[in-house]
UniProtKB/TrEMBL annotation:
<dbReference type="GO" id="GO:0016616">
    <property type="term" value="F:oxidoreductase activity, acting on the CH-OH group of donors, NAD or NADP as acceptor"/>
</dbReference>
<dbReference type="Pfam" id="PF02826">
    <property type="entry name" value="2-Hacid_dh_C"/>
</dbReference>
<dbReference type="InterPro" id="IPR036291">
    <property type="entry name" value="NAD(P)-bd_dom_sf"/>
</dbReference>
<dbReference type="InterPro" id="IPR029753">
    <property type="entry name" value="D-isomer_DH_CS"/>
</dbReference>
<protein>
    <submittedName>
        <fullName>D-2-hydroxyacid dehydrogenase</fullName>
    </submittedName>
</protein>
<feature type="domain" description="D-isomer specific 2-hydroxyacid dehydrogenase NAD-binding">
    <location>
        <begin position="141"/>
        <end position="304"/>
    </location>
</feature>
<keyword id="KW-0520">NAD</keyword>
<dbReference type="Pfam" id="PF00389">
    <property type="entry name" value="2-Hacid_dh"/>
</dbReference>
<dbReference type="GO" id="GO:0051287">
    <property type="term" value="F:NAD binding"/>
</dbReference>
<dbReference type="InterPro" id="IPR006140">
    <property type="entry name" value="D-isomer_DH_NAD-bd"/>
</dbReference>
<keyword id="KW-0560">Oxidoreductase</keyword>
<feature type="domain" description="D-isomer specific 2-hydroxyacid dehydrogenase catalytic">
    <location>
        <begin position="61"/>
        <end position="335"/>
    </location>
</feature>
<dbReference type="InterPro" id="IPR006139">
    <property type="entry name" value="D-isomer_2_OHA_DH_cat_dom"/>
</dbReference>
<comment type="similarity">
    <text>Belongs to the D-isomer specific 2-hydroxyacid dehydrogenase family.</text>
</comment>
Length: 341
């Protein structure tokens, strides 16, 4: 007779975790039977698997009838949601959301300071070996503590952007799907000591449908949203029309949250000042995209959340969720199927 408190839990890691990381995962509980597959996973392994860590290798539902939980190594879930096994209602899907908060908030600050000091123009001048006669033509930089940042999406990334903004003396606004509950949920992972757990920093929190109103007051509009049917093209022509002429948009969420055609029109016409973009509707960004030729755009190839300790940080979240799974406690960052993240 099986015993749910002592039976082995078959875990597949479809990832190139180091031996040290694998040892740490196995140390979580003697009940865990963890096997790493760097390439193909055999059918016999799928048949017994109860837990799967993967970003790219997904079985069909009939291949893994015992599978109950998939841990993704990414914060976003949109790239995995089309797999039939992920759509199965009896399979819990979790992410590493929150792990990227520090790095993506730092990236956002890189963009804010770059545009505050007019780095794009400096790079153009450098390419032309040009020392301008009037280096401050167009005006001096505005002190950052006289500016406002509007944060679209007040999850882990948005909360850390707010903490840094407060430290720089900026006025902080934010938008959030559920404005009645500004505090961070206990079911969401967040590194200790950062962010805004209670949701106290923003001067005002707007509902999602009022993003254009918030944008009208923002010098920098920082987009941190995941991509769902509800967020696709949330930043659209109406939002760009409401923005200040000197405003800059920064996207560290997902490319599809922004209507790229509307953004290109706003940037090329001078409706807004610039953009710092790490994510795009199509990736890699096609060489034919007008964004490549706009001098007021800084482009990075979806690396804003990258770090030399990515594997270790992702494994730490997986380890915590493994402890919770063994103890039959709720998992961190579980997919809410009604919202898509």
């Amino acid at each position: 007779m099986s015993n749910p408190e002592t039976d082995k839990i078959k875990v597949i890691v479809a990832n190139d975790f180091s031996d040290d990381i694998m040892a740490q995962l196995k140390a979580v509980s003697p009940r865990l039977d963890i096997t790493r597959y760097k390439e193909d996973v055999p059918s016999s392994a799928w048949a017994e698997a109860e837990v799967l860590y993967t970003g790219r290798t997904f079985p069909l539902p009939e291949q893994a009838p015992r599978l109950r939980w998939i841990q993704l190594p990414s914060a976003g879930m949109d790239s995995a949601l089309h797999h039939p096994i992920v759509q199965a209602e009896d399979v819990v899907i979790t992410s590493t959301s929150g792990m990227h908060a520090k790095q993506l908030a730092n990236y956002t600050w890189l963009m804010i300071l770059a545009f505050n000091f007019d780095l794009p123009k400096w790079m153009i001048n450098k390419g032309q070996s040009l020392w301008p006669e009037n280096p401050l033509e167009g005006g001096s930089p505005v002190d950052v503590d006289k500016q406002t940042v509007g944060i679209v999406g007040y999850g882990s990334i948005g909360r850390e952007i707010a903490r840094l903004a407060q430290a720089f003396g900026m006025r902080v606004l934010a938008s959030k799907r559920d404005i009645k509950n500004p505090a961070q949920s206990e079911s969401e992972y967040m590194p200790a000591g950062i962010g805004d757990p209670e949701g106290d920093i923003p001067e005002r929190i707007y509902p999602g449908e009022a993003v254009a109103t918030m944008a009208a007051e923002s010098d920098y509009l920082a987009v941190t949203l995941p991509l769902t049917e509800g967020t696709r093209h949330m930043i659209n022509e109406r939002v760009f029309d409401s923005m200040k002429p000197n405003a800059v948009i920064i996207n560290v969420g997902r490319g599809g949250v922004i209507d790229e055609k509307a953004m290109i029109t706003a940037l090329s016409s001078g409706k807004i000042r610039g953009a710092g973009l790490d994510v795009f509707e199509e990736e890699p960004l096609p060489s034919t995209s007008p964004l490549w030729n706009l001098d007021n755009v800084i482009i990075s190839p979806h690396v804003g959340g990258a770090t030399s300790t990515y594997q270790e940080q992702a494994a730490a979240i997986f380890a915590e969720n493994l402890r919770r799974y063994v103890d039959n406690r709720p998992l961190l960052n579980a997919l809410q199927r009604d919202t898509g993240y």
